[in-house]
Design goal:
CATH architecture of the largest domain: 3-Layer(aba) Sandwich
CATH topology of the largest domain: D-Maltodextrin-Binding Protein, domain 2
Distance between the termini: 56 Å
Number of helices: 11
Structural class: alpha/beta
Helix content: 25-40%
Number of domains: 3
Oligomer: single chain
Radius of gyration: 31 Å
Shape: elongated
Strand content: 15-25%
Number of strands: 16
Order of helices and strands: HHHEEHEHHEHEEEHEEEEEHEHEEEH
CATH class of the largest domain: Alpha Beta
């Protein structure tokens, strides 16, 4: 199908040459400024005039001046060209140093674990980078939604993503409150979950996050049932703490609650391991300095052990 263009092709060709000749009032001086021959710049300007369909300069052996059309063209083209140059330089700075808005998508539960401990220091270190953290558990298309990067558990990453490990592996455990377990009993096998009220999670669209458990030497997906479906881990955790039912959730999120006796882990030996948390971004995208700075900052925090208490290894 033939393309339909709203502006002529090569519209800007010769514009800089025209503006330089108009400023210097000399083809030779303009050619020296631009590092080309006088004949080359004369030909470039003449091609521009041909495309516009009107002479822009009055040329004599002694001087160069603008025609009426050239004066009108110069009055509007000069500020527009300056804006283009400014836009070019402004955009180029994003590739030279960490600057601009960094948008990162991640599950809500990850924000206090990974971002809150480091965000203030990151903002102090990189004052030209603004950070927008979007906490949502649904799987999103990073490019379509305008995010620079995302953070997800390894098993949810797309194959065309570049990933950077942010945490060691951790388990997904099934937990319940002491009151719930006293009233409904403790499941001993994966099959026992069918008799329990299980709090389920929708991860986007019509997908319900499956409960995956280890049975012997293999993993099995268990079709659990429950009266409540939530959209994020924090809601699931809150309902489990209130004794509504069992929840399968990442172990780092419940360690403190287990230590305080507010939750108990059941089916402990059946708990599957996750590869861990990864920062990911499209593989075809160039890593801008703002994202590279964030990756390096998080890695430095991990190397210092800042997050070891929050994300213990399996």
């Amino acid at each position: 199908m033939k393309n339909s263009y709203t502006i002529p092709r090569n519209l800007l060709d010769g514009l800089e040459a025209f503006l330089r000749v108009a400023e210097r009032k000399s083809f030779r001086a303009a050619a020296e400024d631009l590092g080309v021959s006088p004949s080359a710049i004369s030909q470039t300007v003449r091609q521009l005039e041909d495309r516009i369909g009107v002479p822009l300069f009055i040329r004599t052996t002694r001087s160069v001046g603008l025609t009426e059309a050239g004066t009108l063209f110069h009055a509007q083209a000069a500020p527009a060209f300056a804006s283009l140059v400014s836009a070019w330089e402004g955009a180029r700075t994003y590739g030279e140093r960490p600057a601009g808005l960094l948008r990162i998508n991640m599950p809500r539960a990850v924000v206090p674990i990974l971002i809150e401990p480091i965000i203030a220091d990151f903002c102090d270190t990189y004052p030209d980078v603004d950070v927008e953290v979007i906490g949502e558990d649904a799987i999103v298309d990073l490019a379509a939604s305008g995010h620079d990067a995302g953070i997800r558990v390894g098993e949810l990453l797309e194959a065309d993503m570049i990933s950077v490990r942010l945490s060691p592996a951790f388990r997904f455990v099934v937990v319940g409150s002491p009151d719930y377990l006293a009233a409904h009993g403790r499941p001993q096998t994966a099959a026992d979950l069918k008799a329990h009220n299980c709090i389920r999670q929708r991860i986007g669209g019509n997908s319900i996050f499956p409960w995956r458990l280890i049975e012997g030497n293999r993993s099995v997906d268990v079709a659990v049932k429950g009266r409540v479906i939530v959209s994020d881990n924090q809601a699931m955790l809150a309902l489990a703490l209130r004794g509504l039912g069992l929840a399968q959730i990442s172990e780092p999120l419940v360690l403190d609650h287990v230590a305080r006796g507010e939750l108990e882990i059941v089916l402990d030996s059946h708990s599957p391991s996750s590869p861990g948390l990864f920062l990911h971004y499209p593989g075809h995208a160039k890593v801008l300095p703002k994202l590279r700075a964030f990756i390096d900052h998080v890695r430095a925090a991990l190397a210092r052990g800042m997050l070891d208490r929050l994300i213990p290894p399996v």
